[in-house]
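Practice problem: predict the structure.
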Amino acid sequence: MGGHSGGGFAAGSPRSPQAFERNASALLRRFPVNQQGLFGVPGRGSTRRLYSDDPAATARYFYDTLGRGGALRRIDRGYIRTFDDGTHVTYRPVSGSDGSPAIQITVRNPNSPLARYQKIHFMKGSDQ
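Answer:
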């Protein structure tokens, strides 16, 4: 018998669900969510919009903060960070729909303060 445990998630693992929740808590200190756990304001369809003076830097901050510790994989037009429970954060510096930076967040933890799914486009300016 060694110290290895089977298929569970090690709470101290950088890719653990707890790591993602710590990342989310750090992001929430700077960017609040609504009652449904969504960032920003409604956009087209089911997307959200978050306005800032520097949309590219804000989107990158979101991705770097939420994705910290997740397994990195390069995808078409962007990057994805995946955690052990399947939670993932996708970053596209240039979205295919309107050219703005975009983040897609899929959360597997039903107790997370964040919505289970959201796609955010980062726009220049203030909330409109």
